[in-house]
TrEMBL record:
Coiled coil: none annotated. Residues 65-339 form the Amidohydrolase-related domain. The keyword Lyase applies. One of its GO terms (molecular function) is hydrolase activity. InterPro entries: ACMSD, Amidohydro-rel, Metal_Hydrolase. This is 2,3-dihydroxybenzoate decarboxylase. One of its GO terms (cellular component) is cytosol. GO terms for biological process: secondary metabolic process. The keyword Lyase applies.
Length: 351
């Protein structure tokens, strides 16, 4: 191909993290965590067994399956729910462990892997220190946030130092889905639609919209945020979001809704990038490119939760010219994550 396929939402989970999750499962009152990890860590069905084994691999198995689908490079990040269901001490320890493991894989296979940093979100000074260490010392390329932190969201003032650090380091925050918190999940859980089929998107779209409407991007205008699944359906709502937000500002109905410097939709063209993880369908990709701009949409597979080789071919066959395909698969990711093109194209084979 005339371009490298860079997959930008690829999950990793150390065995030690899964051991902690198993300890939590019997006593947790978190419906979403019990639904998600109770399935993936205890079911003997083919899919959860595949996901369990692949999440823990940072070597030959992952690389061989990347090769089989033509994926040249993967941006690795700690799987959902990450550190965000753990107590503070364990959250900090697991973030450090995951960052070290990912950095080790990057050093071993520099043309094949890069990675995002995890942090423990409840201790913000420690989280800032770990993000700075992971970026400046370990060479990681951003921050993974597996959406809500025990029902709390990044628009809350206590998280501002972490967002300020990401902006100062010029690295993106990747807002990855999580199951909804208990206040949101019950109707979806009762219907069996709380996970990837629907609940993930509802929860993460809510988080992203809170970030926008609270003025986070006015406070941090150079902050970069990446979100998967083509923006969790929010691009389809642009007209309504802009119209209704303006009406709410004028009516002063909600204390939380204040005037913004831009329209809601315009932040997607300044601060937000979308990936195609789990959304390989050409009509939705082309629509997203039209409304947010082709420089804002990039490829992702969502391995190992989504490992469908056919989906790569589907995106190779998008109605785009070679230069547009190169931008979609390669160039946008290089720009957003600050990847080194010379390293990506180096002689090191990663095997």
């Amino acid at each position: 191909m005339s371009y490298l396929r860079i997959a930008t939402e690829e999950a990793y989970g150390p065995a030690e993290l899964f051991d902690l999750y198993r300890e939590l499962l019997p006593d947790t009152d978190d419906i979403g965590f019990r639904s998600l990890m109770g399935h993936y860590l205890t079911s003997d069905a083919d899919r959860p067994r595949f996901v369990r084994s692949r999440l823990q691999d940072l070597g030959e198995t992952r690389l061989s399956e990347m090769d089989a689908t033509g994926i040249h490079h993967a941006v690795l990040a700690l799987t959902s729910p990450g550190t965000q269901v753990l107590e503070d001490k364990h959250a900090r320890e697991m973030a450090t462990l995951a960052n070290e493991r990912i950095a080790e894989a990057v050093r071993k296979y520099p043309s094949r892997f890069s990675g995002l940093a995890a942090v423990g979100f409840e201790d913000i000074p420690s989280a800032v220190d770990e993000l700075e260490r992971a970026v400046t010392k370990l060479g990681l390329k951003g921050l993974i946030c597996n959406s809500h932190i025990k029902g709390h969201y990044l628009d809350e003032p206590r998280f501002r130092p972490l967002l300020e650090a990401a902006e100062a380091l010029d690295v993106p925050v990747y807002l990855h889905p999580n199951t909804p918190p208990n206040d949101m999940i019950r109707p979806m859980y009762e219907a069996g639609i709380d996970g990837a089929i629907f609940g993930f998107g509802v929860e993460t779209a809510t988080h992203l919209l809170r970030i926008i409407t609270s003025g986070v991007f006015d406070r941090f205008p150079r902050l970069k945020l990446v979100v998967g699944h083509l923006g969790e359906a929010l691009p389809y709502w642009f007209y309504r979001l802009d119209y209704m937000h303006a009406g709410q500002v004028a009516s002063k109905r909600y204390e939380a809704i204040k005037p913004l410097e831009l329209k809601v939709s315009e932040y997607f063209r300044r601060n937000i990038w979308l990936t195609t993880s789990g959304m390989p369908w050409a009509p939705t990709i082309m629509y997203a490119r039209e409304v947010v701009g082709p420089d804002r949409v990039m490829y992702a597979m969502d391995y190992p939760y989504e490992y469908v080789p056919e989906e790569v071919r589907m995106q190779d066959e998008l109605p785009l010219n070679p230069e547009e395909l190169k931008e979609f698969f390669q160039d946008n990711a290089i720009r957003v994550f600050g990847l080194d093109e010379a390293v990506l194209k180096g002689q090191e084979s990663g095997r």
